Amino acid sequence: MKSKMDRRSFLRVAGTSLSIGALYSVFPTLARGAEAELVTRTLKQLNGEAPAPFSFVQLSDTHVGFNGPPDPLGTKAFENAVATVNGLKQRPELVIITGDLTHDADSPDEHAKRYKLFKEISSKIGATQIKVVPGENDAALDGGNMFREFMGPTHYSFDYRGVHFVALDNVSTGKPAVGAEQLAWMKSDLSRFPNTAPIVVFTHRPLFDLKPEWEWFTSDGDEVMNALAPYENVTVLYGHIHREHFHQQGKAKLYAARSLIFAFSDPETSPAKKPMPFDKDQPFKNLGIRAVKGSRGGRDLRIQDVELTMNEYSGTVGMDQVLKHGKGDAADE
Amino acid sequence: MNTTIKRKKVLGGLLFAAAIAAALPIAAPRMKSARLVRTAYADTGPRVIEIKAKKFDFTPSEITLKKGEPVILRLSSEDRKHGFFLRPFKIDADIVPGQTTDVAITPDTAGEYTIICDHYCGTGHGNMKMKMTVTE
Question: Which of A309, B22, B48, B59 could serve as a FRET partner for A53 with CA atoms 20 to 30 Å apart?
Fold first, then answer.
């Protein structure tokens, strides 16, 4: 039987413009009315938790330990992102970080230091929960062992205010793949939900062939998307490509976040994947910001770019300060 | 286009070569016999192109094939596990140290293609690639 809730789209990624990352507003339209109450009651019965408006932020690709070139800023953008999140009037309850938390290192001891520094910086985020998935820099060389030691499982799911979140690991086998075992787990995990349940999947690599020759793909991404296809309210958040991107596949909407270290070139116009050159006058150009704005109905999202700013370090004089006081060496890529 | 991937241990290949060498004149040095075997194979079967992988390069870095020509790409690694990935030809092979991996390919579309390592191998992994040109 088709109920009213089947005809509605619940996850209103209405979005609020931020100066960093993307702030998602969930269920902003579930305010009043009999239909909203029906939706709320039904989802509570199905999910165990009634939907309630909340917001969350996605950050990505902090690459702690990387010190350029091209970017000599080290962790400055990440630290500024933390300060920006903490300065929001509407403090997000949840922060999701979609992989490459650390930049990899040949020495396990050095890599462990980078994990510790990531945790030190991220612990300053004033959010109720911080959820992460690994990128290949975090987990591909050791099968995810160090990630599990410092951060926990590489894939998992949880419910938050009526939304079901699924964290997928498509890096730790070394290949860009989710794998049959994890795919079976995800199908089983989702099987208890109705097709109308709001689902947010977050992972590191794109789950579709965005640019395979740049390794912007997941080899079994089609199988993941096919498993998600029956669900009507799916949002996929990912990183890896160091630039914003939107893609719709069926009813699912997939968004890439910018990085907090350096940007990659545009695959539409660039013959080769390469970091965008560092601009001393605009040190955070193309970094870390994607503002998502939605109509009140929430179906049509408009994405706009907003440059990260760091007033105290803006302009040439400010960059001199950064370069003087920053780490600015140890290029390892 | 057709592609197949076949992996075999180097040891197995050497044993096979040794068996063939045993059937050749006794005076023939062992290594020369092995080369003779390879030459005979090339005369009667697909052209074989050997490609070696190591952090963070393929050698050779560029190969040229003819459209419609069956070719064996014989892959090996000099250090650690690598990948060999070419989406348009549906090639996704692992290159494991101590083994050779044969990829059979008969390209049916001319053009220039980028082959990448898709098994993460370190900080220079993102630039580990080679070029394959298919001519008419």
Answer: A309
What ipTM was predicted for this assembly? 0.76
Task: Report residue A165 as tokens.
Answer: 């979140």
Residue in A140, A209, A273 closest to B120 by CB: A140
Q: Do B40 and B89 fall within a single domain?
A: no
**Partners of A102 in the β-ladder:** A64
The answer to whether the Cβ–Cβ distance between B120 and A212 falls below 8 Å is no
Tell whether A217 lies on the interface with B, counting CB pairs under 8 A: yes
Instruction: Answer yes or no: do B40 and B91 share one domain.
Output: no
Quick: pLDDT tens for A107-156. 999 999 999 999 999 999 988 799 999 999 999 999 999 999 999 999 99
CB B90 within 8 A of CB A209: no
Distance between B87 CA and the closest CA of chain A, angstroms: 7
Distance CA A115, CA A144 (A): 13
The model's pTM? 0.79
Q: How far is B40 from chain A (nearest CA, A)?
A: 35
Top mean-pLDDT range of A65-69, A92-96, A291-295, B91-95:
B91-95
SS3 state of residue A7: helix
Domain match, B62 and B29 both = no
Q: Provide the domain count of chain B.
A: 2
Q: Give per-residue pLDDT as tens, B80-110.
A: 999 999 999 999 999 999 999 999 999 999 9
Q: Which domain holds residue B5?
A: 1-45
d(CA B28, CA A198): 72
Q: Which residues contact A282 (CB under 8 A, 6 or more apart)?
A: A307
Residues in chain A with CB shorter than 8 Å from the CB of B119 are 174-175
